[in-house]
Amino acid sequence: MKRRLVVFISVLLLVTSGLALFPGEKVYACSCVESDVQKRLETYTAVFTGEVVKKGPSQQSKNDGLLTEYTFDVDTAWKGVDAKKMKIIASDGGSESCGIQFEKNHSYLIYAYQYEVDHKLHTNLCSGNILMEQAGNDLKLLGAGKVVSKEDFGETSNDGGRSVPFDLILYGAVILLAALAVVWFWRQKKRI
Fold this sequence. Notes:
By secondary structure, the protein is α+β, with helices and mostly antiparallel strands. The chain has helices at about 1-20, 35-45, 135-140, 150-155, 165-190, and strands spanning about 45-55, 60, 65-80, 85-90, 105-115, 120-125, 130, 145.
């Protein structure tokens, strides 16, 4: 009996000291700061309602865990919408890491912020996103938004990070280089 007690205490000591010496990875739980609808409208870059029409694959980010890009067909906008279809990147981990997942063919009220690293719109569990069926109170507090159609903005947001003037300069440079190449070949041929 005494020997069993000594073995049990020894094993218990080994296990607890092993846990103390090798604690594993630190885990941080998601902790959201409460904010009301008007505060979110002021703070977030984009606020709109829309249906998820496309869900991209989850990708591992170096600093931000799993991320998924969702494409929303926007119905109504209050702020920050530049296209009928908006792309939003969401943290895709579990709720313990502030992750959120949207279901395709479901409509949501979305609050998204522009992430300073990639300049794209991001959202997470703490943003206050909500299914349209549950968004009645938020929608009343937001007031009338602007109904969005593709005639207003175009089909898809410009999430490539380039502006229209940049694209025009790029296309102009390509055309100029092509013209110079034609002139050079023409002059070379004329010399022969």
